Amino acid sequence: MSTTLPPQPGGDTDVAAPVPVVRDTGGTSLWKDAFRRLRKNPQAIAGAVIVGLFLLVAVLAPVLARYGGEELPGRTYITPTHIPGFGVVEGFPLGLDRFGGDLLSKLIWGAQASLVIGVMSTAIGLAGGMLLGIIAGGIGGKVDNVIMRAVDILLSVPNLLLAVSIAAILGQGAFAVMIAIGVAQVPIFARLLRSSMISQRSAEYMLAAQTLGLSRGAIIMNHQLPNSLGPVIVQATLTLATAVIDAAALSFLGLGGGRPQTAEWGRMLTYAQAELGIAPQLAFLPGLCIAITALGFTLLGESLREALDPKTRSK
Amino acid sequence: MLRVIGKRIALLIPTLIGLSLLLFLWVRSLPGGPATALLGDRATPDAVARINELYGFDRPLIEQYFVYMGKLLQGDFGTSILTGRPVLEEFGTRFPATLELTIVALIFAVGIGIPLGYQAAKNYGKWPDHSSVVLSLIGITVPVFFLAFILKWLFAIKLPWFPTDGRQNPRIDATHVTDFYVLDGILTREWDAAWDAFMHLVLPGIALGTIPLAIIVRITRASVLEVQNADYVRTARAKGLQEKTIRNRFVLRNAMLPVTTTIGLQLGLLVSGAVLTETVFAFSGIGRFLRDAIFNLDYPVLQGFIIFIAVIYSLINLLVDVSYSVIDPRVRV
After folding, report:
1. Closest residue of chain B to A286, computed from CA coordinates
2. Listed residue (A308, A123, A152) closest to B14, CA to CA
3. Which of A244, B126, B165, B270 has the most beta carbons within 10 angstroms of its beta carbon?
4. Does ipTM top 0.85?
5. Is A4's CB within 8 Å of B321's CB?
């Protein structure tokens, strides 16, 4: 079975677009050039600002948050039918949640939880996927075939379900969620890097390196791989967005482990469900945080893709 | 053509065997082994030993695998721990609900996505283009369950236009023939039942369809942008063909190729999304059943479901490839 990946915009093979020749003028590298164009792209700047803010909040959470992630300072203000909202009780600017936790503090701690899960799971997916991709794309032949069939099998299971199945083995908890989301990304990275590496195979520099008598390993690691990394890095940025959303989805489904009041955006949504009628902000604010964070990484990733695309490079 | 399809189906077999092997090993690696997973809290050493003997978990792994495969091939997906009923039967009663929801979501996504993407490309660089790009970006990044919350709060709680949850008002005495509630209502001419079931589908359908919608808008836009300046479109225009003919026969037809792939690929997304959407709207389809299965580690259900989805997913992929040759005669599968 072949799982077809969606064609990239502009990647339609029907139109015989002339392949633009990118001349290395010696001065600017691909990455320098991409960075220069990123700085001029408003979409990239918006993404960078959002991501920067998110990172700042996540890292400075211990300073910014007034209460701990699981602290319940406002327990006394909560009744079954009443949950104080914005500015109702002094000291709790965004109000309280069902358990009596400070919503603002919990949102801040939630950023940290999301960052850790997002970065770790992306790193796991990237590491695993790159290893498989390098082996498949670098060695080729039978090895490639076996690996890609295995990747096909994994790709035939929807991503979130794959993560759920892995989390089921590992048990509940943040650690399991991280690994589950990360492993679920492995096939995507593997496939991407492999096809990118294969497209480099016939490049002239590869022939040159072979002619120079470099060893196979050296060619793969020093020449083929660095030239194939572009799409993988773009995908990694986009995966950070998916990882934040998927992590929230898994803990929304109850796989996050920990205690009900743990400060995590997805879990906050789970417990907001019953209160939607009387305290919609409990659902909206964490949801908004997830959406904005994901938006930031997506904007950044897409601008990066544009900046690295040779078709638009000369601009 | 038929031979190619046959070959593709044959290629599916190793994938499915691989998947079944993976799932088999998955269950064996569940914490405490399959017997503990089956028994849950009731796992006393005695009970575990009994279950092991009953299900043959104490036999060699290879033997177990063949027994398991034999059962799978006979359509025996095991019994749900949660309900005690055969997994396949559980799917049978719930699948129509999810299919109904998925169809509504797809109609919403395709029906709005393609025209919107086309208009965006037509007005490239102007406000319809910019707004559709921004909207589709937002659509991609908003989590399904969050969107479901917003829709539910706004259009079911604040403005009581739509029901908050369920598939049909239990007070309606509806006859169910096919378990597709809207279809049932139409078949039995119980118009109020059909309408009520449809109203229950609107909000979950929109929530589920938004991400596919956003993706379809972007792909359609990119694809139309690429095609609309092609030489043959210029020629068609120069021949003085009507704008409508140019749009339908030249631009859209050629631009639809990547869009078709994308629509096919949305299935996986829709299934994962259905789990979340059905949870928010208490919609008793496969998604919600799956969520309960996840919560209770009802592994026969999870196992059966993953195989089920993988088969459908692969078949849809095949269908997408075949539909290429219908849209574009140049492509031979």
Report:
1. B146
2. A152
3. A244
4. no
5. yes
Nearest Cβ partner for A10 among B142, B222, B257: B222
Yes or no, beta carbons of A252 and B145 under 8 Å apart: yes
- Low-confidence spans in chain B with pLDDT less than 50: 333
Q: Is A286:A107 a contact under the CB 8 Å cutoff?
A: yes
Q: How far is A312 from chain B (nearest CA, A)?
A: 14
* C-beta of residue B166 within 8 angstroms of C-beta of residue B150: no
| Domains detected in chain A | 46-308 (1.10.3720.10)
Q: Between the CA of residue B14 and those of A150, A154, B24, B38, B74, what are the distances in Å?
A: 10, 13, 15, 29, 18
> What is the tens place of the pLDDT at every residue in B120-143?
888 888 888 888 888 888 888 888
Test B302 with A164 for CB contact under 8 angstroms: yes
Residue length, chain B?
333
Give the whole-angstrom CA distance, residue B100 versus residue A234. Answer: 36
CB B28 within 8 A of CB B34: yes
Q: Give the global pTM.
A: 0.79
Q: How far apart are CA B14 and CA A224, in angstroms?
A: 31
Whether residue B145 and residue A272 make contact (CB cut-off 8 A), yes or no, is no
The SS3 assignment for B283 reads: coil
Amino acid at residue number A40: K
Query: What are the tokens at A113?
Result: 């939880």
- Residue identified by tokens 């990394």 is A229
Nearest CA in chain A to B21: A153
Distance from CA of B181 to the nearest CA of A (A): 26
Best CA proximity match to B21, nearest among A160, A245, A149: A149
pLDDT digits (tens, 9 = 90+) for B98-108: 888 888 999 99
Cross-chain residue pair B305–A159, CB shorter than 8 Å: no
B304 CA: distance to closest CA in chain A (Å): 12
